[in-house]
Design goal:
There is one protein chain. The chain is built from nine helices and twelve strands. By secondary structure, the chain is α+β, with helices and mostly antiparallel strands. The protein folds into three domains: about 5-160, 2-Layer Sandwich (Beta-Lactamase); about 205-310, Orthogonal Bundle (Helix Hairpins); about 310-470, Heat Shock Protein 90, CATH 3.30.565.10. The strands form three sheets. The protein has a five-stranded antiparallel sheet with strand order 2-1-5-4-3. A five-stranded mixed sheet has the order 7-9-10-12-11. It has a two-stranded antiparallel sheet with strand order 6-8. The longest helix has about 55 residues, at about 5-60. It is rod-shaped and about 160 Å long.
Length: about 475
């Protein structure tokens, strides 16, 4: 039962309310009791002061006989007032209703001049408690001190406090029960969207990731939770779609060279004996498709490790300008064979710390892609520049450009704007042409906290820009 969020919320709500009600009840009870005691003490203090004034006036006349009659006229019926001499003998008295006298406490406990107030209990019951005020006064006319005692029962005050306690005993549990039921109902209403989200989420699987959780109120916490979960589902759906597309494209790319190799082997083996040139031609075809398969598998392995974030960068200190020069010379062989002019612009020394092997692969992929899509007689140019705290690597070509509708997808895996042209270009250049080069290049740039973007592409050519931060480790 306590595993339910609804029950825990209700219990917390009732618990906090119980503490608040108990604190409120105790506070009200204490304030009322203090007020009643203060009022009782004020009445007793007034009686003692009035009796002292009467006694001093009568003693100044030389007689104390009329003090009793004066007391009977001045005080409340529930109060008992008495005057004692220095020896503790009763001088005058006005007993309370029920003929209850005021009793003198031990003389040693009475202060010299202040009014001393205390609570006495002459019986065994709480109703027998009385509030007593006593004062010692010195009257010059009598030449000796007198003691004035006023007492008043606390029964009425105790009954009033008892009534208040009974009210609290009944009201607090009733309020808690009512609040518990209300809290249960409100918690149920408040958590109803979460229950609906839970039921919907239970029905979502890899086959129906396009479904979304219901959002009742997008501005409250549950609505924001549902929107966050829906965003997660969107990312998962895109990831699953990418994985499915990746598997389909990979299967297609692997099937083509395997089919070519199988056909070449089958045709060659149809006859028991063939000329050496025929065997050599078949082996060359198998060798070419084997290299293409190897390149595709290596690229797929690189992307898989990048997705799993399992590839460790091997940081070394080197110069980017030297790396650009070396990759330019390596790519120039491919450019010369195709009749494309490759230009490497000079740049100042550019020290850098990163994975030299991966960055070399990124630049070679960009150059290979530019050469592959540039016709004979065209130009490819690569340059390196520093801007503020970034290195800018620019690769541009004079090819036919990338169609506008294809530009948002060029960094997707196995994507090729013109598959027929890409295969032909691949065959001419000896490349693998699987549509993974740009995806790998972007992954390498992002692994170095950089980015790779297509900044320009039209009928006059395309320009790719890789940006690497100078300090990223």
């Amino acid at each position: 039962m306590l595993d339910s969020v609804r029950m825990r919320l209700t219990l917390w709500y009732v618990g906090v309310l119980a503490l608040a009600l108990i604190a409120f009840s105790v506070g009200v009870y204490a304030l009322l009791a203090h007020s009643l005691y203060e009022r009782s003490d004020a009445a007793l203090r007034s009686s003692v002061e009035a009796t002292a004034a009467t006694l001093e006036r009568e003693m100044s006349k030389g007689s104390s006989q009329s003090v009793t009659s004066e007391l009977e006229e001045q005080f409340f019926p529930d109060q008992s007032v008495a005057v004692f001499d220095a020896a503790g003998r009763l001088v005058a008295e006005k007993p309370a209703r029920g003929n209850i006298p005021a009793q003198l406490p031990p003389i040693d406990s009475i202060p010299a001049a202040e009014i001393y107030i205390y609570t006495s209990n002459d019986g065994d019951e709480a109703e027998d408690e009385r509030r007593v005020a006593v004062q010692r006064i010195n009257i010059a006319a009598a030449g000796e001190p007198f003691y004035i005692v006023a007492s008043q029962p606390l029964e009425a005050m105790m009954e009033e406090l008892e009534v208040l306690r009974n009210i609290f005993y009944a009201a607090v549990p009733f309020a808690l029960v009512f609040a518990g039921l209300g809290g249960w109902f409100l918690a149920r209403r408040s958590l109803a969207p979460m229950v609906a989200m839970s039921q919907r989420a239970r029905r979502i699987s890899a086959e129906n990731l396009e479904q979304r959780l219901p959002v009742v109120n997008p501005r409250d916490e549950l609505g924001k939770l549902a929107e966050t979960f829906n965003e997660l589902l969107t990312r998962l759906n895109a990831s699953f779609a990418q994985q499915r597309q990746f598997m389909a494209d990979a299967s297609h790319e692997l099937r083509t060279p395997l089919s070519v190799m199988n056909t070449a082997a089958a045709v060659t083996l149809e006859k028991p004996h063939r000329a050496e040139d025929e065997y050599r031609e078949a082996l060359l075809m198998v060798d070419e498709q084997t290299r293409r398969l190897t390149k595709i598998v290596e690229d797929m392995f690189t992307l898989a490790r990048a997705d799993a974030r399992s590839r460790t960068l091997h940081y070394v200190d080197f110069y980017l300008d030297e790396l650009i020069g070396e990759t330019g010379r390596a790519a120039n062989l491919l450019a010369t064979r195709k009749g494309v002019q490759l230009e490497v612009e000079g740049s100042p020394e550019s020290p850098y710390r990163g994975d030299e092997g991966l960055l070399r692969q990124m630049v070679l992929n960009l150059l290979g892609n530019a050469i592959k899509h540039t016709p004979a007689g065209g130009n490819v140019r690569i340059s390196l520049a520093r801007r503020a705290s970034e290195y800018i690597i620019t690769v541009s070509d004079t090819g036919s450009g990338i169609p506008v509708e294809a530009q948002p997808h060029i960094f997707e895996r196995f994507f090729r704007a013109d598959k027929a042209r890409s295969r032909a270009a691949s065959a001419d250049s000896g490349g693998a042409g699987a549509g993974l080069g740009l995806a790998i290049a972007r992954g390498i740039a992002e692994a170095h906290d950089g980015r790779l973007e297509l900044t320009h592409s039209d009928e006059g050519g395309s320009t790719f820009v890789a940006t690497l931060p100078v300090d990223h480790t």
